[in-house]
Automatic annotation (TrEMBL):
Keywords: ATP-binding, Nucleotide-binding, Transport. The keyword Transport applies. This is ABC transporter ATP-binding protein. The keyword Nucleotide-binding applies. It comes from Anaerobaca lacustris. GO terms for molecular function: ATP binding; ATP hydrolysis activity. It holds the Pfam family ABC_tran. Residues 22-259 form the ABC transporter domain. InterPro entries: AAA+_ATPase, ABC_transporter-like_ATP-bd, ABC_transporter-like_CS, P-loop_NTPase.
Length: 288
């Protein structure tokens, strides 16, 4: 296997282009004067699971939102399956977006809709005149994939947190996407429910051949699902490789993060602000 070391940016050559699902080149994102992504270049391989880790606020969500152009670059380029997408209109983007399922932190289920209606929602948005009888089997199959067939008539309020995430995942795969973006899929779940989600990520990669991109603070999940783990820090990629590469990484910031230690910089901020709970700065799985 080629991957073990930190990548220094795009690799040239046709072979790489064929296996690349998403690419960003020299991506810079600023909000006002705040620099969030600092010249990030990255290729995401088809059919693999890439995990993005890093401290709170380092730009993980902003980065993956660029992959579906929910955020536009300040400068730099974004490609999906070889097509440059960062300059496309919203209308042109809708085709690209149907090829990507996403499970965002804020992308909660619609409380007023049943489980089945939630899963039908993206299908109805895309195929305007579809009838329930036409999609009933699709809804059933998607729910079966996440182990929740039979829950069609439940409402989100009657489901546990883990079940809600699984319904959201069934909705994310409703249109058979080639890519699934997961933003903190295990946050707020206990280790057993987290493992169910991890297994689902692996199952969807295995059974559907999807390309998965998982943003997480949870190192257990990262090691379990990631073919490749990328760490972002101060808007830059500081580590990129397989689980062993990340575990043995020489960069002190990587070691502090994966071992849940508080850095001297964080402590200085805490002392200055008089804040108390150092655990706020730890990866979330170390807070339990
Ligand atoms: N629409 C926006 N306008 C202004 N600032 C933004 C916007 N979206 C994100 N930011 C800022 O960009 C930075 C990175 O945010 P992002 O959500 O990507 O962090 P993150 O690494 O995903 O953090 P967390 O792990 O806490 O979810 C943060 O400082 C955030 O406040």
């Amino acid at each position: 296997m080629e991957r073990q070391n930190d990548h220094k940016g795009p690799v040239d050559g046709n072979g790489a282009a064929e296996t690349t699902q998403i690419e960003v080149r020299n991506l810079i994102k600023k909000f006002g004067r705040k620099l969030v992504l600092d010249n990030v270049s990255l290729r995401i391989e088809k059919g693999k699971t890439t995990v993005i880790i890093g401290p709170s606020g380092c730009g993980k969500t902003v980065l993956i939102k660029h992959f579906i152009v929910l955020q536009r670059p300040t400068s730099g380029e974004v490609y999906f399956d070889g097509q440059r997408v960062d300059g496309l209109s919203e209308r042109q983007l809708s085709d690209v977006r149907t090829r990507i399922g996403y499970l965002f932190q804020e992308g909660a289920l619609f409380d007023s809709m049943s489980v089945a209606e939630n899963i039908m929602f993206p299908i109805k948005q895309h195929f305007k005149h579809v009838k329930w009888s036409q999609v009933e089997e699709v809804v059933k199959a998607k729910l079966a994939m996440v182990g929740l067939d039979g829950f069609q008539n439940y409402y989100p309020a009657n489901l546990s947190g883990g079940q809600r995430k699984r319904v959201a995942l069934a909705r994310a795969i409703a249109l058979n996407p080639e890519v699934i973006l997961y933003d903190e899929p295990t946050t707020g779940l206990d280790p057993i429910r987290s493992d169910i989600i991890n297994e689902l990520v692996l199952k969807l990669e295995r059974d559907l051949g999807v390309t998965s991109i998982v943003v997480t603070h949870d190192m257990r999940s990262a090691y379990k699902v990631g073919d490749r783990i990328i760490m972002l820090h101060n808007g830059k990629i500081i580590a990129d490789g397989d689980a062993d590469h990340i575990r043995d990484h020489p960069h002190p910031t990587v070691q502090q993060f994966i071992n849940g230690q508080v850095s001297e910089d964080d402590l200085a901020v805490l002392r200055m602000s008089g804040a108390v709970a150092t655990s706020q700065f730890l990866p979330r799985d170390f807070q339990k």
